[in-house]
Amino acid sequence: MSAVDPPLHLNLRQARLLHLAAQGLLVPPRARPTPARLVAAIAQMQLLQIDTIHVVARSPYLTLFSRLGSYPAEWLEQVLAQGRIFETWAHEACFAPMADLDLHTAYRPARLQHWALRHAQRVRASHRRETDDLLAHVAERGAVRSADFARQDGQASGGWWGWKAEKRWLEALFGTGELMVARRDNFQRVYDLRERVLAKAQRYRVARAETAPDAVKQEWIARSVKALGVTQARWIADYFRLGRQITPAELAPLLERGEIFPVQVAGWDKPGYVHADHAALAARAARGRLRATHSSLLSPFDPVVWDRDRAAALFGFDYRIECYTPEPKRRYGYFVLPILQRGRLAGRLDAKAHRKEGVFEVKAIFLEEGVEPDEQLLQDVAEAIRRCAGWHGTPTVKLGRSEPRGLAAKLRKAVIRD
């Protein structure tokens, strides 16, 4: 597409399919998973958000499962230890391809408004001696975990509010970039000096010439558009936490260079934008040539749903992560997984994996308003639950309540069907 071409017209379903294609969720994986394909999936999303809640699986593992299918979860730690990916603050705490490290580093000064980086700067400034001593300790003795330091206050460990001093200092040094995560042991961060981590990862880095901050932001804008497939301007900044809403003046250079182009989406009162690399994909979408055949359970922190406004506009799916909501105020449950079914978000389920017992418990399942539990949906959702349960090593599926009421009984039959 060029500036002189007439804009493409997409209906809302075509826009959804373009978004899912860009995210790697349009069709089932065509090849067996490999560590290289795992890294490629992260690169396609640009970021893989980290969260530690694991009543089902920790979010990064589940997000990859939705795109790769059943894979050994330890691959994620392996590619991190090899230096093929690294950890950074971007959308939130995320894994990102090591090839993008220099770009993240170049944008770091502009990202200092991020709450985590502001907090890191405050802790570093207010505990200069202690953090200097901790850096010297790591330099002399090698990589460390927070677990290597005993609590001195006699308190039990808890959430972030209960972190021991060394954990806060390690996180601050990670936030300032002086330490990096060298690997994870049982999902615990192992921190080492930045220069030692990068020396090991040098073969995976892509060196970049020093670039002006505005040019770096332009690349992040373009990458956000590419990751989203099609997006309104108001959704761009959230992807990499670029600050305030992206303005027409910031989009103009990208449009002039042809890096992105506008499209019209039925029902949107503002233009959509598509990356030039997706021009052929967008044209196929506009001709009705994209077909969604993939169904899967999604993580609550999947890019498809992490922007509530975007999920509502694209899918008509009003999604809130309720694990941080007091139990009496929850509508759906603690760890609710969106159900992707052939191009739509058809429902959600509250699940828990009982690994010792080998049981995958679906406490409750809900279909969206207007979604009919026909045979195709029952087969797709049952298969999605079976695959997820099998990947967890919890092959016995237990189904609780449902909305509509008869759905659970029908699903039970479909889940145990050979």
Strand content: 15-25%
Radius of gyration in whole Å, from Cα?
Answer: 22 Å
Specify the structural class: alpha+beta
Order of helices and strands: EHHEHHEEHHHHEEHHEHHEEHEHEEEHEH
Number of strands: 14
Q: Which overall shape is indicated by the principal axes computed on the Cα atoms?
A: globular
Low-confidence stretches: 156-161
Whole-number mean pLDDT: 93
Enumerate how many helices there are, as a single number: 16
**Helix share, percent:** 40-55%
| Major sheet attributes | 5 strands, mixed
**Spatial strand sequence of the major β-sheet:** 10-11-12-13-14
Q: How far is it from the N-terminal to the C-terminal residue, by CA?
A: 48 Å
Task: Report what the structure shows.
By secondary structure, the protein is α+β, with helices and mostly antiparallel strands. The chain has helices at residues 12-23, 35-45, 59-68, 74-81, 101-107, 115-126, 128-141, 165-176, 194-200, 213-228, 236-240, 248-257, 279-286, 308-315, 375-392, 407-416, and strands at 8-10, 48-49, 85-89, 93-97, 179-185, 188-193, 231-232, 260-265, 272-275, 295-297, 336-341, 344-354, 359-367, 396-403. It has a five-stranded mixed sheet with strand order 10-11-12-13-14, with helices on one face. A hairpin with a 6-residue loop joins β8 and β9. The longest helix is centred in the C-terminal third of the chain and has 18 residues, at 375-392. It starts with 7 loop residues before the first strand and ends with a helix.
